[in-house]
Each structure stands twice: as C-alpha cells, then as structure tokens.
C-alpha cells in the first residue's frame, strides 16, 4: 500500500524520531539516532558513516584533511592498474600487482623529517640516503657490500664503476676517466690537455702538474740527486748511439764492457784522499796510480801483480811502481802454491833518484807471514828507500812495501818454493825435494865434487803438523877433501829453527845433510851449482859468468851497461889449486851515478876471505873486479841475477815545476844555482814566509817576506851599487831604508878606523 503525504505532527522538526532508530529493509539504510551514525549495509554502524560494501563516488572531499584508515594490521587497498593521481593525471602512483610506478610531469620531491630514506629488500636494510646536517650521504649498509654503477650498451649490461667497500671504497672504472680538470689528493692538479709526443709531467712545486720536454742530452735536478731505480729483476742501462755503455742490476754492479773507450775515475793527490769506504777507487795524481780502499782499512794501489793469474813457476820477475808512504802490495801468491819466497830486488827512490839492492825472505804458515831484509846496497847510505812487511789475507801471502819518500819503485826476481814445487833442473839451477826428514841427519842433496866447486841454496822447510815454516840460505864449497857450509838468512814463522845443516865429502860427492828439530819435515831446495871452468851464458835475468883467472891485483870478472841493468846479485866461487883453497861469496852491485858494491855472506876453506870484490863505473859501463888473497892463478866463476829499475816517473806533486803552483815536501837538492823569476810582493799566508825576486830600479833583487808582513831585501845593494838595508811593512806601510856604506863611512870619520875594505 502506498503511503500518501504525511502532514501534521507525525514527524518532529528536522525529522527527529524521538530517540527511535529508523531502518530501511533492516540494514539497507540504518539511522542510529542515539549515536548520530548512519549505516549502509549494516545495522550497527560504529562510525559516523559505515558502509559495508563498495562505495562509488566521483569526488570525496573533506572539510580540512581527508583521512583514510583501516583496522589494526589492515590495509587500504587500491586495485591493480588503478592509479592514485594528484592534481591531474600527470602525477600518478599506480601498481600492477608487481611494480609500483610513480609518474610525474614535473619533479618528484621527497621531504624526510627523519633525515633518512632506507632501502630494504624485504628482509634487511641494504642502503640508505642520509640527510644529516643538510648533507646527502649515500650509504651501503651491508658489511663489505660494494656499490655498483651499471649501464647498458645495446643489449649488454656493464658495470661502469665499482666502489669496493672491503677496500675502503677503492674505485674501479670500467673505462677511461674524462674530466676538464682533475685534482688528486687535494694536492695535485693534472693538466687538462695532452702534451706533445715524448713529453713528461713535471710539477711547479705547488701541486700543479704540466707537460714539459726533457733534454735528451742531460738530466738534472738542481743540487739534489738524480736516481734511476729498477725495483724488479731488470737492469738500469745507460746507452749512447744504440750501444750499451753502463749496465747495472742485482748481479752486475757496473758493466761497461760494451764500450771501447774508457771510464774516467776521480783524480786527486794523496793529500786529497777521502776518508774512504771499502770498494772505492780513484786515481792518485801524487803516485801516478789507480788505488782502491781495501778491507784492511787503507788506500792501496790496484794491480800490484803483473798478472791476475797465479804464476806457479819457481822463478818469476815482476815490478811495482808508485810505492808511496802508504803501504802497498808489491807481490802476492796463493798460500797453497808456495811456503817460501825470496825476492832479489832493485829499488829506486824516484824523488831523490837513488837506487838500492835488497833481498826479502818471506815465509808463511797459511794464516800469517813474516819477512826479513838482507844484503842491502845503497847509492845513498842515508836513504832507507822502502821498508817491507808481509801478511796473509784472502788465501794469499802478500809482500807489502812502504816508501820513505812519496814515490818509489821496485823490480824483483822471485824464487818461490813449497807444495807446488816439482823437482827439476833449468840451466845451473836445480830444485831438490825431500819429503820426510826426521831427527836423524840425512842427505837432502848431493853433487859430484869433480864437476862442481860450490853451490848456493835457497831452502824451504815445512812442518805441516805444527804449520811452521823456516827459510834458510846456505853457501857450500869444498877443497877436494873437505866440504864447508854456512847457513844464514833464517826466517821462521815459529819460535825455533826447524833444521840444522851440514856438508861433507863422501867419496866422489859432496853431500848436504839436514837434521830435523821436529819429525816429518818437508824440505824443498833451490840449488845453483858452479864449476871451476864455467862457460859464460846470458839470459833475460840470469847470466853465468865465465871462468876468469885473477891474482892479488883486482881483475875484471864481469861487466854490464847500467842502461840494461840497474843492479845485480852475484854468487862467486874461487879456487886456487896451488894453495888448495876454495871459497864461495855473495856480491851485490848497484849503479846510479857511480857503482856501489857490498860483499857477503862468504865461506872459505882458508878460514879467511879468499876473494875481495870492487866495482867501478865509467860512463854507462859497470865493471866488477876480484882480487885473491891466495895469489895468482885463482879461478873465479860466477852466477848473476840482474834487473833493470829505470825511472818510473815521479808525479808532478813531487817534482819541482817551472810554471805550476804546487806544494813541495821533503828535502830537495839543487844541482845548480837557483834562479827565481821576478815577481811582485806575495800576499801573506798564515804560518808561511816567502823568498822571492822583485825588480827594484830595473834590477832584480832577492827579498824575504815574513808572516807579519815585513819585506826585507837580502841582496843588499841599491841601484847605485851601495850596500843598504831595506825593509818595508806591507801592513802598516812603514819603510826603513839605510845606506849602510854611508853610515859606516861616517863612523869611520868619527872613530878614525877603517871598516870598509875594497878588494
């Protein structure tokens, strides 16, 4: 039934129901008048408007804010592909069930009150944007997780930049870095454009880097060092014209073998030597030699031996020059080659131009060496020439010398004996070996008495068990019935002589025997035999002097030219059949401006000297003479070792020059008058005085200047020829000039005496 219009008081004003709810079809529309709520699809609205179902509206507006809420843990759902637009369709948030898309016709602005925008993978936070203190910080939250910047080229993805967080953010770029300007470490600014080919980068000292060209002719760095280093196993090479000049690496300190020219060493005088470190080398202009700093802590000339290879011959010739007041190695040999060595030496003092002979006997026990000096003959008896010492170092036994002047030289003939020696004969010399001599006397050598008159021995005795060595020299002579021996020149590495020597005639032989003071001795002997009728022979360093008959008058037995030989060592034998006497004598001769001779040791069957020797020089010829105390018909035979020791050339530091300023040390002798070139007054020098020549009124006069500046004329005449005293102080200008002749003549007038006498 239809209801017509209701009039009257059925409904109160504003359609109030007097506290009674109004329902349409139970819950289609329900008005809760008590709580002022409307329900659609529900009869129990809990809010002002509660709709149980879908609400379709074109506009939902709020008086101020529009609030959408859901129950606890509930959601406000917007269906897939339904967008949420802002203002118009240009700003839209829409989800498709998988992805959420934010579209904006302008900017997307995010305002974060909490200052952090955190990215979460559904399980944990993996990164965040932090706006602390108005700074934007991008942070990777996972431990040791890298930050990757990726892109696409064509259909391929690549990583353009990786920031390795496990390496404190080390950046790895996939390709080049392009920048108009780049500053590194807040200190270095790189150039913004490439330089020219083969240019290098340099700094201005303030952090700005630029390209520059380095000269191919030089590399320099002010007063600092220029260092080229290879940190691997390669080499640092210096080359010129494509050829390697110097190569240095871990195994080769310096290799200039490809060069055919030379390496130039530092040059300086002895006084300019640096303090020195082991391995340093330099050229010493004072000694005219290359020298190096040795492990023993001193400077020594390099190349002391004539050959780097060991010479194992029993005899050897050699020389050494530039022997200064600093010790120098003259010769050396390996300890395994020889136990003993004798050096017959001719030395020269290059500064004073004096010569001498000397014999050096060296023995070693593998760890130490001793040396003795004998048979010295000098052209200047006051000159000590060189002193010698010996040592063992690096497996070598070394003979060392020190000069008493600053430049000396030596030539030597070496006789060496030891483990390397083999028995054999060369000319008049024979090597004889006995490997086991004990306390009983036993023969170590023998020779036919009818064939030979005498012998000279160099003997090396080795006691291997005690590492002791003894050097002995001996002369042996016989008269046909009895043999005589004298031993001398004993040099021991230990505290006592190792053997005692005797000689005897046994049948047709002369027998030389040794009695050991220790058991199991090895004796090696170098023997020179001389007969009564020797035929002369010559060699490079050895001559046999032919038989000469002499009397009580000095007779020439040998001669040589001093341009060929400077000095000679002789062994002479003498025999007089009438008297039945024989002798053996050592003689040393040296030649300089004159001939100088010394004699001994000697042995004679007479008990006194049989032969007396002398030497003379005429021009360049040196003549050796002998006179016999046995009278006429004394036959003399000889064996000569000779050496030339010419001038090795003193350095300019030790020679008085005519034009070069230099310091001259040591005593100097002028063979003629000293002429001085006219010069001006010299400047003062601390602790120095001067003598010089100076013009005075066109005449050269001699002056002295002391340290105080007083200049005094010591050639006491003025331009008129009068004797005068003259002195001037160069500092004050005060001058004193006294005519001594005038003063004395005035004194003569006063005294009446005559002081000046005119010859």
Description:
With 759 residues, this protein is an all-beta fold. Among the domains are: 11-54, no CATH class; 235-264, no CATH class; 267-417, 4-oxalocrotonate tautomerase-like (Immunoglobulin-like), CATH 2.60.40; 424-530, Sandwich (Immunoglobulin-like); 542-643, Sandwich (Immunoglobulin-like); 675-751, no CATH class. It is 2% helix and 47% strand. It is built from one helix and 53 strands. A hairpin with a 2-residue loop joins strand 32 (424-426) and strand 33 (429-437). The longest helix has 12 residues, at 740-751. The model is unreliable at 304-309 (pLDDT under 50).
How would you describe this structure in keywords?
elongated, 759 residues, mainly beta, 53 strands, 6-stranded antiparallel β-sheet
Bulk shape = elongated
Q: What share of residues is helical?
A: under 10%
> Within the largest sheet, what's the order of strands?
32-33-40-35-36-37
Structural class: mainly beta
CATH superfamily of the domain at 267-417: 4-oxalocrotonate tautomerase-like
Q: Which parts are unreliable, with pLDDT below 50 for 5 consecutive residues or more?
A: 304-309
CATH topology of the domain at 267-417: Immunoglobulin-like
- Rg from C-alpha positions? 58 Å
The CATH first-level class of the domain at 267-417 comes to Mainly Beta
Percent of residues in beta strands: over 45%
Distance between the termini: 195 Å
The pLDDT mean sits at 85
Number of strands: 53
Give me the CATH architecture of the domain at 267-417, please: Sandwich
Q: Report the biggest beta sheet as strand number plus sense, adding barrel if it closes.
A: 6 strands, antiparallel
Number of helix segments?
1
């Amino acid at each position: 039934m239809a209801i017509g219009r209701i009039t009257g008081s059925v409904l109160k004003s504003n359609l109030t129901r007097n506290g009674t709810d109004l329902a349409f079809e139970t819950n289609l529309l329900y008005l809760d008048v008590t709580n002022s709520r409307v329900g659609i699809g529900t009869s129990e609205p809990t809010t002002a408007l509660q709709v149980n179902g879908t609400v379709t509206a074109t506009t939902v507006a709020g008086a101020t804010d529009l609030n959408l809420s859901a129950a606890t843990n509930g959601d406000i759902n917007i269906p897939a592909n339904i967008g949420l637009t802002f203002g118009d369709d240009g700003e839209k948030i829409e989800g498709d069930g998988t992805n959420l898309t934010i579209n904006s016709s302008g900017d997307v602005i995010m305002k974060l009150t909490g200052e952090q925008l955190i990215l979460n993978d559904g399980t944990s936070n993996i990164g965040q944007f932090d706006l602390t203190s108005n700074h934007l910080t991008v942070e990777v939250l996972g431990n040791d997780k890298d930050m990757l910047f990726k892109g696409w080229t064509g259909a391929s993805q690549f990583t353009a930049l990786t920031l390795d967080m496990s390496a404190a953010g080390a950046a790895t770029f996939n390709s080049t870095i392009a920048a108009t300007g780049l500053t590194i470490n807040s200190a270095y600014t790189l150039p913004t454009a490439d330089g020219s080919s083969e240019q290098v980068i340099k700094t201005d000292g303030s952090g700005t880097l630029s390209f520059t060209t380095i000269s191919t002719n030089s590399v320099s760095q002010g007063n600092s060092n220029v260092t080229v280093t290879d940190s691997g196993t390669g080499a640092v090479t210096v080359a010129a014209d494509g050829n390697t000049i110097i190569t240095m690496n871990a195994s080769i300190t310096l290799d200039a073998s490809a060069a055919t020219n030379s390496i130039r060493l530092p040059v300086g005088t002895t006084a300019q030597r640096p303090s020195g470190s082991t391995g340093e080398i330099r050229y010493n202009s004072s000694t005219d030699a290359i020298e190096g700093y040795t492990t023993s802590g001193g400077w020594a000339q390099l190349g002391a031996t004539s050959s780097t290879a060991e010479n194992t011959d029993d005899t050897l010739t050699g020389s050494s020059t530039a022997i200064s007041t600093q010790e120098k190695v003259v010769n050396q040999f390996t300890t395994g080659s020889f136990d003993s060595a004798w050096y017959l030496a001719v030395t020269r003092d290059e500064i004073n131009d004096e010569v001498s002979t000397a014999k050096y006997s060296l023995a070693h026990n593998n760890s130490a060496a001793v040396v003795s000096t004998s048979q010295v003959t000098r052209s200047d008896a006051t000159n000590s020439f060189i002193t010698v010492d010996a040592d063992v170092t690096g497996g070598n036994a070394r003979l060392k010398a020190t000069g008493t002047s600053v430049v000396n030289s030596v030539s030597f003939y070496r006789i060496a004996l030891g483990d390397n020696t083999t028995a054999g004969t060369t000319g008049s010399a024979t090597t004889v070996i006995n490997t086991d001599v004990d306390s009983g006397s036993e023969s170590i050598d023998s020779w036919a008495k009818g064939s030979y008159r005498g012998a000279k021995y160099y003997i090396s005795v080795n006691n291997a068990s005690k590492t002791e060595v003894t050097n002995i020299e001996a002369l042996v002579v016989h008269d046909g019935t009895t043999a005589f021996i004298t031993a001398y020149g004993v040099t021991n590495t230990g505290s006592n002589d190792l053997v005692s020597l005797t000689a005897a005639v046994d049948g047709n032989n002369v027998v030389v025997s040794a009695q050991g003071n220790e058991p199991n001795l090895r004796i090696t002997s170098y023997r020179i035999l001389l007969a009564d009728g020797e035929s002369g022979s010559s060699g490079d360093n050895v001559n046999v002097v032919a038989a000469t008959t002499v009397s009580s008058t000095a007779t020439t037995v040998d001669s040589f030219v001093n341009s060929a030989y400077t000095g000679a060592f002789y062994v002479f034998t003498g025999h007089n059949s009438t008297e039945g006497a024989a002798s053996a004598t050592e003689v040393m001769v040296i030649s300089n401006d004159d001939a100088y001779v010394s004699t001994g040791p000697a042995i004679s069957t007479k008990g006194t000297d049989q032969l007396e020797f002398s030497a003379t020089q005429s021009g360049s010829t040196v003549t050796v003479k002998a006179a016999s105390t046995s009278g006429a018909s004394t036959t003399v035979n000889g064996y000569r070792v000779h050496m030339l020791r010419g001038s090795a050339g003193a350095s300019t530091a030790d020679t008085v020059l005519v034009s070069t300023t230099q310091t001259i040390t040591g005593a100097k002798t002028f063979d003629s008058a000293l002429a001085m070139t006219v010069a001006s007054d010299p400047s003062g020098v601390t602790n120095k005085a001067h003598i010089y020549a100076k013009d005075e009124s066109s005449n050269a006069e001699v002056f002295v200047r002391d340290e105080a500046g007083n200049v005094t004329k010591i050639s006491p005449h003025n331009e008129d020829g009068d004797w005068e005293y003259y002195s001037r102080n160069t500092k004050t200008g005060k001058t004193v000039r006294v005519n001594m002749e005038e003063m004395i003549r005035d004194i003569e007038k006063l005294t009446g005496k005559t002081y000046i006498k005119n010859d």
